[in-house]
Amino acid sequence: MSPRRTHRPATSSAVAEAAHGIPPAIAAATPASPPPPPMAATGLAGSHPGGPALAAREVNAGPPGPPTYTLELPPGLRLLNPNHREHWADRKRRFDSLKKATWAMALKHHVPHLGKARIHVEYQPPSRRHYDPDNAPAASAKPCIDGLVAAHVLPGDDSRYVTAVTATIGEPHPKGRLVLTITDETGVQ
After folding, report:
1. Are 157 and 145 in contact (CB under 8 A)?
2. What are phi and psi of 37, to 5 degrees?
3. Is the dihedral of CA 110, 184, 56, 99 positive or negative?
4. Which residue from 88, 72, 79 is spatially nearest to 139, judged by alpha carbons?
5. What number is the average pLDDT over the span 100-118?
6. Helix axes 88-108, 136-150, angle to 10 degrees
7. Which one is predicted more confidently, 135 or 39?
8. According to a count of CB atoms within 10 Å of the terminal CB, is the N or C end of the chain lower?
9. Domain 5-33+43-184 belongs to what architecture?
């Protein structure tokens, strides 16, 4: 089993730079986030030394495989849902806040440029009630992918650069949050 590699912690100036352009509610909520529950089953136990629960980690467990990066978005972001009938401006605000949060997390944690990637979106809901993965997590994947493109992690969001997008429901987290897992598939044919 090869050791787990973790990116170096972000400095306070990098945090301030990455937070530029994020609505104050998101920027204010980011440092006060509670630590996540242990995720030993996925190999992501512990929290990031540079800040609570806000880590982009490269995880290599088992035989060498493609690098994987995990972005934990700030808790409490309002997600998109195809079943909500809302005003277009409200939907645009939700879309933009998800995109900016993903952009900021990718820059803050120095996720490198990837040629092609597979993206997994996990929604960690605020309660244990049953949620449909086709609603909030799947609908919120598009602005998150756009945030990765804006951060120059991916060159585009079409099928040449994003090979698959999956969505699941994870363990509960206070206020609820999205966790993006980006798997580099640049060398995969």
Report:
1. yes
2. -65, 155
3. positive
4. 79
5. 95
6. 50
7. 135
8. C
9. 2-Layer Sandwich (3.30)
* 120 and 66 Cβ atoms separated by less than 8 Å: no
More confident call, 120 vs 26: 120
Pick the closest to residue 176 from 108, 98, 111 (CA basis).
98
> What is the structure's pLDDT at 113?
94
Q: Where are the domains of the chain?
A: 5-33+43-184
pTM of the complete model: 0.66
Q: At what angle do helices 88-108 and 12-19 cross, to 10 degrees?
A: 160
Pick 136 or 150 by higher pLDDT.
150
